[in-house]
Write a structure and sequence with these properties.
With 233 residues, this protein is α+β, with helices and mostly antiparallel strands. It has 7 helices and 11 strands. Helix content is 34%, strand content 26%.
Length: 233
């Protein structure tokens, strides 16, 4: 197994603060050229390479490959196995899972950064988004958020509204990813309430999962221009 510090010289990952002792989070720089990395460092399977080659834009292909490679090495370090020997399968609702190990994980990438989460406690979902100022956050909230979330954002202005929008969005996506669902469904099944202490998840009546009431979610400290969150189901 390659030492973590040797591998990290290629990826530039760093631990992100987390209040849950059983959760580890990493921010990874994926704005690099995979061709500059030795094949053994990438450690990708043929299926992952085939998936990467489906991306049209070279930068998207590169970022996918680097995210998957970093995920492999971090899971290898956590499990004591070799990165290239790790095998993945589809768990409940299609969420990726490790073959032969109950360790829970999730990954997300946007722009030049990826967020990777590993949990020994239970299912985890993570999301990171590069914030775009040229969006109509109120219109998006009207279409995808609950009415009270939209009203909350309407009461904010400028950068505060944009930041709050992305904090809600990343929390919603992290929650849905923890359960293995895509983001197009169930966004209005629960409310994300931002407060000084963090994030509260409040299920709506008749929501898709009663277990939502027990979900813990929190924002992740990310570089300027990014918003990130994780959720434990």
């Amino acid at each position: 197994m390659q030492p973590a510090e040797h591998v990290n010289a290629h990826f530039g990952w760093r631990r992100a603060p987390c209040v849950d002792a059983d959760v580890r989070l990493w921010l990874v720089n994926v704005d690099a050229d995979p061709a500059a990395l030795p094949g053994t460092t990438l450690a990708l399977s043929q299926d992952e390479i085939d998936r990467a080659n489906r991306f049209i834009r070279p930068e998207d292909r590169a970022r996918y490959m680097l995210t998957r490679a970093a995920l492999r090495h971090l899971l290898a370090e956590a499990t004591g196995r070799e990165a290239q020997t790790l095998a993945f399968c589809a768990g409940q609702y299609g969420k990726p899972a490790l073959v032969g190990d109950d360790l829970q994980f999730n990954a997300s990438h946007s722009g030049a950064l990826a967020l990777i989460g590993v949990s020994a406690r239970g299912p985890i979902g993570v999301d990171i988004e590069q914030m775009r100022e040229a969006i109509d956050e109120l219109r998006l909230a009207e279409n995808f958020f609950r009415e009270d979330e939209h009203n909350f954002l309407a009461g904010l202005a400028g950068g505060r509204r944009l930041e709050a929008f992305y904090r809600i969005w990343t929390a919603k996506e992290a929650v849905l990813k923890a359960f293995g669902f895509g983001i197009t469904a169930y966004l209005k099944d629960f409310r994300v309430r931002l407060n000084p202490a963090g994030i509260d998840i409040e299920p709506a009546p008749g929501c898709f999962k009663p277990e939502l009431a027990a979900v813990r979610a929190a924002s992740v400290e990310a570089p300027a221009g990014y918003a990130a969150a994780y959720a434990l189901a």
